[in-house]
UniProtKB/TrEMBL annotation:
SUPFAM superfamilies: FMN-binding split barrel. Residues 30-172 form the Flavin reductase like domain. Belongs to the non-flavoprotein flavin reductase family. It holds the Pfam family Flavin_Reduct. It comes from the Bacteria. InterPro entries: Flavin_Rdtase-like_dom, NADH-dep_flavin_reductase, Split_barrel_FMN-bd. This is Flavin reductase family protein. Keywords: Oxidoreductase.
Amino acid sequence: MVDRMSHVDSGETVRGVENLVEAAQLRQTCATWPTGVAAVTSAGTDGVPVGLAVNSFTSLSLEPPLVLFCAALSSTTWPRIRAAGRFLVQVLAADQHDVAEVFARSGGDKFAGLAWHRRDGLPELAGISAVLKCSLVEVHTGGDHEIAVGRVEAVETFGKRPLVFHDGAMHTLPLPRVAGSGAEER
Ligand SMILES: Cc1cc2nc3c(=O)[nH]c(=O)nc-3n(C[C@H](O)[C@H](O)[C@H](O)COP(=O)(O)O)c2cc1C
């Protein structure tokens, strides 16, 4: 199938063109870019905890403090986060591969069997590397995704090394080499 998309050509004009790159090729190329893995969680109007795994999280602005993530239109969790209007971005720690896998699966109770508590009513997982509490301030369209912009209201870091996603697999960073310290995992 040929999609139409907006494209800035070498003449700096915006026009509709055919997709020039196959989706699989684009996915494979973008997978060369290493990222962290975050669980974005919220609580529906019924208070039920919901969440999904994302690697599209990024910082956007310091003044005002904004971050973003991209949610697939196919996500069943994103409409609930959008309706709630607030969410937690939780940077997963190096030993949380299993948590990432749970949050990357659609449907079911993703919190069953995991340790978690509520932070201002929002579900926060135990053992994470960092958390950002956000209110949803903007949603932009982006092809088959939506771009969710959150205003950061609170942050906390826990000094844990992060989980890394690269080439379609989860990795951990090597321990830093600090002369004479015998650097240890925290
Ligand atoms: C490492 C990793 C990163 C992901 N990043 C995103 C992302 O940025 N946005 C997104 O919508 N889905 C992302 N996904 C896929 C969702 O986590 C997955 O589709 C999940 O099943 C959605 O669940 P839901 O239907 O409950 O929303 C990612 C999955 C993995 C494993």
